[in-house]
Sequence to fold (529 residues):
Amino acid sequence: MKTIHCAAYALLRRHGMTTIFGNPGSNELPFLKNFPDDFQYVLGLHEGAVVGMADGFALASGMPAFVNLHAAAGTGNGMGALTNAWYSHSPLVITAGQQVRPMIGVEAMLANVDATQLPKPLVKWSYEPASADDVPRALSQAIHCANTAPKAPVYLSIPYDDWDQAAPAGVEHLLERQVQSAGAPDAGQLKALVEQLAKARNPVLVLGPEVDATLSNAAAVALADKLRAPVWIAPSASRCPFPTRHACFRGVLPAAIAGISRVLAGHDLILVVGAPVFRYHQYAPGDYLPAGARLLHITCDPQEAARAPMGDALVADIKAVLTLAAEQVMQQSRPYPAPLPAPEPVQDGARELHPHTLFEVVDAVAPDDAIYVKESTSTTSAFWQRMNLRHPGSYYFPAAGGLGFGLPAAVGVQLAQPQRRVIALIGDGSANYGITALWTAAQYRIPVVFVILKNGTYGALRWFAGVLDAEDSPGLDVPGLDFCALAKGYGVNAVHADTRKSFEAALRAALDASGPTLIEVPTLTIEPH
Ligand code: TZD
Ligand code: CA
Fold:
């Protein structure tokens, strides 16, 4: 380890971070030169796509992902995608090249002025090492910081004249460091929780994305089976923490204060695990809790615990709490919740599929363990009704609703999970924010199946326009887009399918292919709820 360049790559290698998502500029070239053979550079053509791919990769691998952006302009382009990474607790180690140290002060071209300020408030830590000697330690801090609960993106700005400097003495200690968390509840806390669950007359579980992120899905099922309690997914779901065909599964809670209290009315104990309390969206004021209900919140995020407007919180390791509670709580004898009603039959258009039909075909044709990356905002409830998701890590949706996640994240998820098939279900509005990820999928032969639901409009905004009495707003339609032509332009095979039969055939062919395919499907506009 003669140079800081060598030390940085050794450190990344030691943490298994040998995939680098990036888009380079001159400030970054001294870092990228002598690129080691055991590393892979995944080029994205726009930084929104770069951060989206890295986000998908981090979420689906459970590991920190390394990102290299070009100074201020590159960082700025990545910021929209960072909103999602922040709310999904995604451990992204984002680096950006800085001008050489002697030219930052004069604000030479590409000097990232006030670099550490730029990515805030969407990073947990932002830093520019005060000397070249501090670069390896700062990189080590960035990795540990991003990857320690609550996980989150971090940002490092690194002057490009640092890379060729000699590595400082003692740098080898960094390669041996481990940082662990130990957040199991103590005996008293666990006893209190188990007692409350046991004595509740009508408890309900509300599970969030961190249950899936910590692979606690089976523990959640064990607890639900013991309690025979209904299970809701926390509002604004970005992952699927619970099997959608389990007898306890109810669906996703509405994202409104009054709506949640209405749906949970009658429960005396609401146990929320691995989600904020709550991630509301549309404003429907009312009581935060149904009458007579108590709320207990288990989270790994102290900020989430602190900002909740109601209930008691325990900041703890989610897997430990769920596993211990499932072990210790008494088996209840009450019946399982009543079966959910079958979804209503739907009618397709002559040359347009109803989204329910589309999801039904996908559910029937795709492998059991397919992974869905979804960004079609008007079809949320249709998706949850129709899809049988049974494995951990089967569903990703932008955690802050920032569009431009779906298409790139699908590429990152597929890179992280090569043995599973990734199907991206993307709206014709959403697709445009991250469209350049098609190029990465084509060039690296990443076999994602991109299904574009083309209804010609920002469907969810049409619904919102009704809610907000703003139906005459301009800018809500997106006619005239040809996604087959766009896909071909980026090097991805594409096919248009406008009947159930042709869609099914196209999907089967896409799943058999070794490279990516885009299927453009005209769809009817439906309401998200
Ligand atoms: N810009 C960004 C970056 N994120 C956003 N969430 C929006 C704009 C606003 N927005 C929504 O919240 S939903 C939506 C927009 C533009 C419509 C998405 O249209 P779609 O899906 O075609 O992808 P549906 O199924 O037609 O709603
Ligand atoms: Ca649309």
Q: What stands out?
A: The first helix runs from residue 4 to 14. The chain has a mean pLDDT of 97.
